[in-house]
UniProtKB/TrEMBL annotation:
<keyword id="KW-0393">Immunoglobulin domain</keyword>
<dbReference type="GO" id="GO:0042130">
    <property type="term" value="P:negative regulation of T cell proliferation"/>
</dbReference>
<keyword id="KW-0325">Glycoprotein</keyword>
<keyword id="KW-1015">Disulfide bond</keyword>
<keyword id="KW-0812">Transmembrane</keyword>
<keyword id="KW-0472">Membrane</keyword>
<dbReference type="InterPro" id="IPR036179">
    <property type="entry name" value="Ig-like_dom_sf"/>
</dbReference>
<feature type="domain" description="Ig-like">
    <location>
        <begin position="167"/>
        <end position="272"/>
    </location>
</feature>
<dbReference type="InterPro" id="IPR003599">
    <property type="entry name" value="Ig_sub"/>
</dbReference>
<dbReference type="GO" id="GO:0007166">
    <property type="term" value="P:cell surface receptor signaling pathway"/>
</dbReference>
<dbReference type="InterPro" id="IPR013106">
    <property type="entry name" value="Ig_V-set"/>
</dbReference>
<keyword id="KW-1003">Cell membrane</keyword>
<protein>
    <recommendedName>
        <fullName>Ig-like domain-containing protein</fullName>
    </recommendedName>
</protein>
<dbReference type="GO" id="GO:0006955">
    <property type="term" value="P:immune response"/>
</dbReference>
<dbReference type="GO" id="GO:0031295">
    <property type="term" value="P:T cell costimulation"/>
</dbReference>
<keyword id="KW-0732">Signal</keyword>
<feature type="domain" description="Ig-like">
    <location>
        <begin position="291"/>
        <end position="378"/>
    </location>
</feature>
Length: 451
């Protein structure tokens, strides 16, 4: 029955596709194939060509069936489609295999690679004994890939029997920490691991490891281990180490810095040498330390209205060297507002409306976090007595004065009416009232002169 055999074939293909490609978590990787344009000699600015390329990746070798099940896209030249065997699954990380249709894609570049004997002192011994030249006669490639979200950086050396388009990973160097951020004074681990295909003739002939530091065009050797002679190269660097047990047992070439310092910020390149081969990855180390702040002068002198006081905010001990400084003022009621954005601030109580004073705060925004320093500011001549207090005193005086005036008026008016009606009969009665009225007039005069 032909239908059944078709269904069988389809399911075999589906099975192969599922387990051959996606099931193992190995990606189909889009890469740029970059090489020197043919026909140009050496020189400094060799023109490069860049072509779209695609790598199908499996952990097992391809069979006829698995190859025929793959359908490369038509927009990529068949000569730039590679069927890669990666026994250790170094490419098969989630960081290189984003979900279908995701906007962010891993970065990948593939270049032709020329095996060569290394010239560096700690790796030259690797090629002392004669290597199988037949093995080196093949197509060699290097692939550099960067995973999503700074999770992985990888550099693989691959060998394909001449013109086969089926390369196999021979050496893989990778880091799970392409970007490391550390506080000052803490120990730092820069991850670097390598894997060598055990079936390759270059396996077991020794390896060397090198860590170089690079910052703004300057470089230095941090550490170099000559595995052939089991020797560290002499370097001026102190406090940097690798774990030799881990290096041999697990291919763990991670660099350990005992205590991070500002001068450690930069790029670290981990290189692994095999006879005639090398691969390297870069790890960026950022030392991030928020600043310590102080306000000068300290303590702040008393501010006299009409005078200006220059205060300075000093930030120290921070890295990296970018910082945003600003000032805040919080008055006696706790209301906060901004006073500007520089390390120097001119405090003028009139212009800035500082009232009786309050708290002046310097705010530093930094990659390592926000830091604050505060100082108390007192403005003199305003606080005792305050305008409100003076107003209240005037009001009380006015009320008192009004009350007394009213009293004296009531008393004197009753006097006059009585004088009118009773004439001199009540003279005896009038006298003390008149005296009292005089006392009131004295109080009146005192108040008038004061208010
Ligand atoms: C060195 O590596 C070995 C093997 O990975 C591990 O057991 C050991 O604890 C490591 N030593 C240090 C000092 O980290
Ligand atoms: C590599 O070695 C370092 C230092 O011994 C250790 O801290 C780290 O966990 C090791 N990494 C792996 C993947 O074993």
């Amino acid at each position: 029955m032909p239908e059944i055999s078709t269904i069988y074939k389809i399911s075999v293909i589906a099975f192969t596709l599922f387990f051959g490609a996606s099931g193992s978590g190995c990606p189909v990787l889009e890469c740029w194939f970059v090489q020197e344009k043919p026909g140009h000699g050496g020189g400094f600015s060799v023109p490069m060509s860049q072509e779209k390329s695609l790598m199908f990746i499996r952990t097992e070798a391809y069979s006829e069936e698995s190859l025929s099940a793959l359908h490369p896209p038509a927009d990529i030249s068949p000569s730039r489609i590679y069927y890669m065997t990666d026994p250790a699954g170094t490419f098969c990380s989630a960081a290189l295999n984003p979900p279908k249709g995701s906007v962010n894609k891993p970065k990948c570049e593939i270049n032709p690679f020329m095996p060569h004997a290394s010239m560096v002192r700690w790796a030259s011994a690797l090629t002392d004994s004669a290597q199988s030249p037949v093995y080196l006669q093949a197509d060699w490639f290097s692939v550099a890939a960067q995973g999503l979200d700074e999770q992985l950086t990888l550099s693989n050396i691959m060998r394909a029997p001449s013109a086969s388009k089926e390369p196999q990973v021979i050496l893989s160097v990778s880091s799970k920490t392409p970007v490391v951020r550390s506080r000052l004074g803490e120990p730092v681990l820069l991850d670097c691991g390598f894997w060598v295909d055990a079936s390759s003739p270059v396996h077991g002939s020794g390896f060397s490891v090198e860590w170089r530091y690079q910052f703004r065009g300057e470089g230095r050797l941090v550490l170099a281990y000559d595995g052939k002679n089991d020797r560290f190269a002499e370097t001026s660097e102190t406090g940097a180490d690798i774990n030799i047990t881990g290096l041999y047992e697990k291919g763990n070439a991670s660099l350990i810095l005992e205590e991070s310092q500002v001068r450690h910020s930069g790029t670290y390149i981990c290189t692994v040498y095999l006879p005639h081969l090398l691969a390297q990855v870069a790890v960026d180390l950022e030392i991030v330390e928020p600043p310590s702040l102080s306000i000068y002068p300290s303590p702040l002198p008393l501010l006299v209205p009409g005078q200006a006081l220059v205060v300075q905010c000093e930030a120290s001990g921070f890295a990296p060297h970018t910082l945003d400084l600003s000032w805040e003022f919080s008055d006696a009621d706790g209301t906060s507002r901004s006073l500007g954005q520089s390390s120097r601030l001119e405090l003028d109580s009139g212009k800035l409306g500082l009232g009786r004073g309050g708290e002046v705060t310097c705010v530093a925004k930094h990659d390592g976090g926000t830091r604050r320093a505060a100082a108390t500011l007192s403005v003199i001549g305003v606080s005792a007595p305050s305008i409100e207090d003076s107003m209240a005193m005037v009001a009380v005086a006015l009320v008192l004065y009004g009350l007394i005036k009213f009293l004296s008026w009531t008393l004197s008016s009753s006097d006059s009416s009585e004088t009118e009606s009773k004439d001199k009969v009540n003279n005896v009665y009038f006298c003390p009232t008149s005296k009292f009225s005089k006392v009131l007039n004295v109080i009146h005069a005192v108040f008038s002169s004061h208010v």
